[in-house]
Design brief:
The complex is a heterotrimer of chains A (307), B (262) and C (344). Helix content of chain A is 70%, strand content 3%. Chain A is mostly helical and 307 residues long. The longest helix of chain A is centred in the first third of the chain and has 33 residues. In chain A, 45% of the residues are buried. Chain B is 80% helix and 0% strand. Chain B has eleven helices and no strands. In chain B, α6 packs across α8 and α7 packs antiparallel against α8. Chain C has 344 residues and is of the alpha/beta class. Chain C folds into two domains: 187 residues, Periplasmic binding protein-like II (D-Maltodextrin-Binding Protein, domain 2); 149 residues, 3-Layer(aba) Sandwich (D-Maltodextrin-Binding Protein, domain 2). In chain C, α2 links the parallel β1 and β2. In chain C, α7 packs parallel to α14. Classes of the chains: A mainly alpha (307), B mainly alpha (262), C alpha/beta (344). Chains in contact: A-B, A-C, B-C.
Chain lengths: 307, 262, 344
């Protein structure tokens, strides 16, 4: 969609009186703002609030208010010191970053490939990338359980290549989770990246080559700056949600790769410790907001639209 | 270099489609357990028709998607328009808040709503988990997507068109219904379709806010897979995959016609 | 525009129409634990609809009930050690025995149990044991010990652990010669470390049904399951075997209970009464292959099941079996240890 820059002189609502302006504003934004205040803002605040409560003997939420949940997050639980949750957090961040990196590596060839196609095939190629994206994530994820079964040829190939020890199944495990994550998030990276790649001014690359640059230098200095916005958008679209993923580590990592999402689910399920689960969720929320704010600040310098 | 690119792209497409292919293939496996191929059969598809849980889940999924998309499209469109055209106190804050459901891990939203429903239930007795709570939850994460899409469509509008309408004597309401609305309709439909798909595919939020008898297809698939993959789940999944592919193709073609028309 | 609006409203109406319910019973039960035909028979006899939601472990069920399920579901199936907790949390409705005349069908040792005197809140449903389900060739049987999971030298191949707090920790405690109901922090810490070490070598945690399916699918060699899954697994695949390890294990009783705010309390009690009928009880046990607490049902149960020591353990086996108790405030210790085990 090509956005025409708006004339600074055009003022919408200029024909309205201040009262009329308020009325129009209330009718249009009012309902959604009310909805989101009740069902988004208040629940998120509630998560923060509950994290300060205590857990009863059987999992009820009760007073007194306490910092115990946060102490446990830092490692001080009932049975001594245990840096478990900081490790889970780091592991989740690593998974998010790793997924983003792998997606970048996979998306670059795809984006360039599609950009170089004849125009009539471009839509087809893009649609082919998008179709898996519109297919249910659960289905695509559990399918990897079948693909990674002990007798499957993928597992045997991996054993042969020495990526995994023989006798150790691929699933459940970190490698399976990583592959599942990349498969899921790849379209999120390809689409924004392709949007940038398509607009590349190749004359810059040609000029660089004429000036004697080798391929790496051409990429770094002539191409990379041009695709940077798409790249960054893709990374943000992958990294933040990947860190909090629950389904893929659950289905492909089993109980062996616990990430933030699984830890939160565990507390609201089997472990029945809502205050603690809320604390984990609240910290995760804080980190995501931090990441978003940083991105927004950078984005504000470069241009208004985020997506 | 060109060859390398083609090979890489080919492998990547294979990678993207491997899961879909394997599910479809194994839905015809006659073995009940395991990844061993023991023969071809279409029995599992027939068994689906006798499976009340699957049929009820399909009905719930569609009902949930239709209800939530309807509400979210209306609210989201209004919000997109309102954010683009008018001011109100706290507008900057809400513009930022709008992006939260887009980026936060859905489990955070899911447990936040679960918590909220619990608290309200203990004070007011409302919000027993079930279809209603699920619809509310879905609308909450759909509104931002619709609003963002509609708003970006609005930003791209040529202001001259609306100005012309007003110069010709139309008031605000007439301008909106006869000029603005038709022009942003593709955006509204795109937002609506996005919202619809998000609801159909949602698992995490539904999982935490569902009650008895309101199981959806994703929840059913997850619970079944946790007990072990069986060919009847593969059959169900194949049907869902085929439906998604058909829908994607239809939508892409519609969009191309739209673009050609405008 | 108008045509599509009408089409839309029509679809909406049709989906709503199919949704209008007659009276309904909301059952929340373990997976593969009730014969679908029994639910269908109940629907026909009482002109209602039975919705069945499933769970894989007792603590998740408790979590769902605490989170609002108490006013959504009518009947749940808690194990013996959870019933006192649910009573204390006021989650169970007292049973009106005048609506459940078939209580007399219960075997005396299951009537008036220690965890619920007078059957005030619960009625025995099925009972069984916790044991090991393995695939083994006829000529080379595996040692019948929990060491298959906990001793690296005895590992027979890939295995799964059971995704249930008391059951898994109980196995570790028994392997170390302690009681299943230990609240000694030192013993529990040792059990935790044992499970953590086993977890590293395992394929992860599964519920009993999922674990049995993994062994049948040959993706795992050994699993911890309940006796019914063991019996059914052996039926499906003659190469497998279910045993109770020599260090001892757990014997449990699952119970039907009506939730405190059940929306269909009368129908729920009718359901309990229905399950306690002799023929229904037999149909149930013939399907689940768990042991029946229903004396009147015994004549109608498959005779090879009655003679199967996995399902009806003989006295010398019963001597090795311990019952789980509700640990009151000390449950917290188990929950925190379990979180540590799951999270690492």
């Amino acid at each position: 969609m090509n956005a025409k820059p708006r004339d600074a002189e055009v003022q919408y609502g200029a024909h309205l009186t201040p009262g009329g302006h308020r009325l129009c504003s209330a009718i249009t934004s009012g309902p959604a703002v009310l909805w989101l205040s009740i069902f988004l803002l208040i629940p998120l605040v509630a998560v923060g609030a509950i994290s300060f409560f205590s857990r009863g003997a059987y999992g009820e939420i009760e007073l007194p208010l306490t910092l115990e949940s946060y102490k446990r997050l830092l490692g001080f639980g009932q049975l001594g010191f245990d840096p478990l949750y900081p490790v889970i957090l780091l592991r989740s961040l690593a998974l998010g970053a790793g997924t983003a990196l792998l997606c970048v590596l996979a998306a670059l060839p795809l984006a360039f490939f599609i950009a170089r196609l004849r125009p009539r095939y471009k839509t087809l190629a893009l649609t082919l990338v998008v179709i898996p994206f519109w297919t249910n994530l659960l289905i695509r994820t559990y399918a990897w359980q079948i693909l990674f079964a002990p007798e499957s040829w993928i597992t045997r190939a991996f054993h042969y290549l020495g990526v995994v020890n023989a006798g150790e199944p691929l699933y459940p495990g970190v490698l399976a989770v990583a592959i599942g994550m990349v498969c899921d998030f790849l379209p999120f990276m390809v689409l924004p990246l392709y949007a940038s790649v398509e607009k590349i001014d190749w004359s810059l690359a040609e000029a660089a080559m004429d000036l004697g640059a080798n391929r790496v230098q051409v990429f770094r200095h002539a191409l990379l700056p041009q695709i940077a916005p798409g790249l960054v958008a893709g990374i943000v679209l992958v990294f933040l949600p990947a860190t909090g993923q629950f389904v893929i580590p659950d289905l492909l990592g089993g109980a062996k790769t616990v990430m933030l999402g699984n830890a939160i689910q565990q507390q609201f399920g089997q472990s029945r410790d809502w205050p603690f689960g809320s604390a984990i969720a609240f910290v995760a929320l804080g980190l995501v907001m931090l990441g978003l704010t940083c991105y927004a600040r950078r984005g504000a310098k470069e241009g208004p639209s985020l997506l | 270099m060109k060859q390398l690119l083609n090979i890489a792209a080919g492998l990547l497409y294979l990678f993207l489609y491997a899961p879909i292919a394997v599910v479809m293939v194994y839905s015809f496996n006659s073995a009940r357990f395991g990844a061993r191929w023991t023969g071809f059969t279409t029995n599992w598809y027939g068994a689906l028709l006798d499976n009340p849980a699957a049929l009820s889940a399909a009905r719930n999924t569609l009902l949930l998607a239709v209800l939530s998309t309807s509400i979210a499209t209306v609210l989201g469109t209004l919000l997109g328009y309102g954010l683009d055209r008018f001011n109100f106190p706290g507008k900057r804050f809400f513009s930022r808040l709008l992006y939260v459901p887009v980026f936060i891990p859905d489990i955070i939203l899911a447990v936040a709503l679960l918590l909220f429903y619990s608290l309200v239930r203990s004070w007011l007795g409302l919000f027993d988990l079930g279809l209603t709570t699920m619809v509310i939850a879905h609308v909450t994460f759909q509104i931002p997507f619709v609003a963002i899409v509609v708003r970006s469509r609005l930003v791209g509008l040529d202001p001259a068109l609306e100005e012309a309408a007003r110069d010709l004597g139309a008031n605000g309401w007439q301008t909106f219904t006869h000029v603005t609305l038709p022009l942003i309709l593709p955006g509204i439909m795109a937002g609506g379709m996005l919202a619809f798909t998000l609801s159909l595919d949602d698992f995490v939020v539904s999982f935490f806010t569902s009650g008895p008898g309101s199981t959806t297809l994703p929840i059913l698939i997850y619970s079944s897979v946790k007990r072990g993959i069986t060919p009847d789940i593969n059959a169900l999944s194949t049907l869902i995959i085929l439906a998604s592919i058909a829908a994607t193709i239809v939508i892409t073609m519609l969009q191309r016609n739209q673009r050609a028309a405008t | 525009m108008k045509k599509s609006a009408i089409a839309f409203l029509f679809t909406l109406f049709m989906t709503f129409a199919g949704w209008a319910s007659t009276t309904q019973l909301n059952l929340y039960i373990w997976s593969e634990y009730i014969d679908p035909k029994i639910a269908a028979d109940f629907e026909k006899q009482f002109d209602c609809k039975v919705t069945i939601d499933l769970y894989e472990d007792a603590e998740s069920m408790l979590a769902k009930v605490q989170n609002g399920g108490v006013s959504l579901y009518d009947v749940v199936v808690p194990p013996d050690h959870i019933v006192p907790a649910m009573i204390k949390l006021k989650l169970l409705a007292p049973l009106r025995h005048e609506n459940i005349p078939n209580l007399k069908n219960l075997d005396p040792q299951f009537a008036n149990p220690s965890y619920d005197r007078g059957n005030r809140h619960s009625v025995a449903y099925q009972w069984g044991t916790v044991g090991v389900f393995v695939r083994q060739p006829k000529d080379r049987p595996l040692p019948q010990t929990w060491g298959i999971f906990f001793d690296p030298k005895l590992q027979p191949g890939p295995f799964v652990l059971i995704d249930s707090v008391r059951d898994m920790l109980g196995a570790a405690l028994k392997y170390q010669g302690h009681s299943l109901n230990s609240t000694d922090p030192q013993q529990l810490k040792e059990a935790r470390d044992l499970v953590l070490e086993a977890k590293k070598r395992s394929l992860g945690f599964e519920g009993s049904v999922g674990a049995k399916n993994r062994v049948l699918a040959r993706t795992a060699r050994a699993a911890i399951v309940y006796s019914g899954e063991g019996a059914r697994g052996v039926n499906d695949d003659a190469e497998t075997v279910y045993f109770i390890p020599k260090e001892g294990s757990q014997i449990w009783v699952d119970n039907l209970a009506v939730l405190a705010k059940a929306p269909h309390r009368d129908l729920a009690e009718k359901f309990l009464n229905f399950i306690l009928e002799a023929k229904v009880g037999a149909k149930l046990s013939n399907f689940t292959q768990y042991s029946s607490p229903n004396k009147a049902a015994l004549p109608f149960i498959r005779s090879q099941d009655l003679k199967n020591p996995s399902i009806y353990p003989p006295p010398e086996l019963r001597a090795r079996l311990e019952v789980l108790e509700d640990l009151g405030a000390k449950t917290r210790l188990y929950d925190e240890i379990w979180t540590q085990i799951k999270a690492r």
